[in-house]
Design goal:
Elements lengths: L1 E6 L1 E2 L2 E2 L1 H6 L8 E8 L6 H7 L3 E6 L8 H15 L3 E5 L2 H14 L2 E6 L1 E5 L2 E8 L4 E6 L6 E5 L16 E4 L29 E5 L10 H9 L3 E4 L1 H5 L20 E5 L5 H7 L4 E6 L6 H4 L2 E4 L2 H16 L2
Parallel strand pairs: 1-4, 1-6, 4-5, 5-12, 6-11, 7-11, 13-14, 13-15, 15-16, 16-17
Antiparallel strand pairs: 2-3, 8-9, 9-10
Helix pairs in contact: 3-4, 5-9
The structure holds flavin-adenine dinucleotide.
């Protein structure tokens, strides 16, 4: 089986979510990677060290912005030339935009936001959350047509690069017609903290914080433990946090090692965005709060007392 990984990159660096795709259990598959953009040749080396047998470079100034439209058009030409059985992309904003376009262009089967993948011989299966994470669907691809699959970030651990490995490198030419969309500007999200989709630890605050200023409690704790700051929708709607921090059905879907929910009730729409976190800690004043049904560890208490204590304990442990 030939698997083609679509490599996502920013500022000359591979996205962590792409590196993680190499950590999936893909059986005896032959792994190829395709990387599209402007001057992407330097990325062939890290892709080879992660385990790609062959890296396909698709270079064009028109791909610099990395819009779904231009990437979709380019990969729609490149993928048939490579001839994989499976195309894998990370379920990031770029992957979410690209995968359906590609599947439609190539008349391929599509499974998105998968949290488990099985490759046994020629059979490919995938698991994906449905009904806002209330249930999990097992998907089996029933014929041998091309399969396009996106995988939720943090589903697998990225392997350590092996400096002794290298990939064969090929350059593929594409002809891009005029685009209907163009990237005009990227407005930086802000702050030094990691984004919730990339962080290994997330500290999330809810409506109970009561004000934007009070979120400094959450920020202090997050900074002490190197975490991202997340937010419930209620806190975003109240203007306490920007939308980019929102976790949930209409926010971001995250899967960190540790998710610490502070004063978050655990509404189903919130759980939809963080249910697959590896370890969930909940701090809530109400012992009946639904979040405790999902949490691995629960603290019944006032977050305004508990969170500063946790931050203090973490600081003492760090010795700083
Ligand atoms: C279509 C749709 C999409 C939605 N999408 C999302 C989404 O993406 N993300 C999302 O989060 N929500 C989403 N929601 C909203 C969701 O239903 C809830 O309203 C929201 O998650 C509640 O946020 P909250 O837990 O911060 O607030 P609340 O429900 O008000 O809960 C506050 C919690 O804080 C606790 N508390 C109060 N004071 C303290 C204290 N001092 N110390 C400790 N605990 C305290 C309370 O016991 C309570 O459990 C969506 C809703 C709809 C209808």
């Amino acid at each position: 089986m030939k698997i083609l990984i679509i490599a996502e990159h920013k500022n000359g660096t591979l996205a962590e979510a792409t590196r993680e795709l190499f950590g999936l259990s893909l059986g005896q598959a032959e792994i190829h990677a395709v990387v599209a953009g402007e001057e992407v040749a330097p990325l062939a080396e890290p892709l080879g060290q992660l385990g790609a047998a062959k890296v396909h470079l698709v270079e064009s100034p028109a791909l610099a912005g990395g819009t779904g439209e231009s990437l979709g058009q380019a990969l729609g030409q490149v993928v048939p030339q490579i001839g994989p059985d499976v195309v894998l992309a990370a379920h990031t904003p770029q992957g979410r935009d690209l995968a359906p376009r590609l599947a439609a262009t190539l008349d391929a089967a599509l499974a998105t936001d998968c949290i488990q993948l099985g490759c046994e011989g020629e059979t490919v299966t995938a698991r994906r959350p449905i009904y806002a994470g209330k249930a999990t669907a097992e998907v089996e691809f029933t014929d041998d047509s091309l399969k396009v699959i996106t995988v939720r970030p943090r589903t697998a651990k990225a392997p350590e690069p092996d400096a002794g490995r290298s990939a064969e490198v090929a350059t593929v030419a594409v002809e891009l017609s005029e685009q209907k969309t163009a990237l005009k500007e990227i407005i930086a999200g802000g702050g030094e903290r990691p984004d919730v989709t990339e962080a290994a630890i997330i500290v999330t605050g809810g409506r109970s914080l009561g004000s934007a200023e009070n979120f400094s409690i959450i920020e202090n704790f997050a900074d002490t433990i190197g975490a991202a700051v997340g937010s419930s929708r209620a806190a975003v709607d109240a203007g306490y946090r920007p939308y980019r921090d929102q976790v949930g059905q209409t926010g971001k879907v995250v899967s960190p090692q540790v998710y610490i929910a502070c004063g978050v009730s655990g509404a189903i729409q919130h759980l939809a965005g963080m249910r697959t976190s590896k370890h969930i800690v909940a701090i809530n004043i109400d012992p009946e709060a639904p979040i405790f049904q999902l949490a691995d560890y629960g603290i019944v208490g006032d977050l305004f007392e508990v969170v500063p204590l946790l931050a203090e304990a973490a600081k003492n442990r760090n010795g700083s």
